[in-house]
Amino acid sequence: MDWIIIILVILVVVAWFAWNYYSIRRAAHFIDNADFASRIHTSQVIDIREATSFKAKHIMGARNLPASQIDLSLSAIRKDKPVLLYAESRSTTLPRVIRTLKRAGFTDLYVLNDGFDYWTGKVKEG
């Protein structure tokens, strides 16, 4: 009987992770460095890392809207232009930011696939 409960819990956890993964992949396009770089001049580049990380080093032309404050920053993002998002390579806040933007009506969302840690383009160091 106990093993049935354990299996059910495992199935629920796996289902939750799978749903989370696929819902995020449907809401935003994950693109590589080259594609991201080619879109910079026609899009809004948003760095969702905290301000200290942004000040130390960020992609040229990016604005800092930390994930922790994204709900308060929605009015600073235009809905008529594509949004390019990036964070660290293993960001746990990215799914929440993508969902928040999608719920707010943003439809043209792109995410730097491997994150800022693997960015090879131009950066500004503070």
UniProtKB/TrEMBL annotation:
CDD domains: RHOD
Keyword Membrane included in the entry's annotation: yes
Gene3D superfamilies: Rhodanese-like domain (3.40.250.10)
SUPFAM superfamilies: Rhodanese/Cell cycle control phosphatase
The UniProt record lists the keyword ATP-binding: no
Sequence ranges assigned to domain Rhodanese in this UniProt record: 39-124
Cited PANTHER family: FAD-DEPENDENT OXIDOREDUCTASE (PTHR43031), RHODANESE-RELATED SULFURTRANSFERASES (PTHR43031:SF18)
Protein name: Rhodanese-like domain-containing protein
Keywords noted in UniProt: Membrane, Transmembrane, Transmembrane helix
Sequence intervals crossing the membrane: 6-22
Organism: Candidatus Streptococcus faecavium
Top-level taxon of the source organism: Bacteria
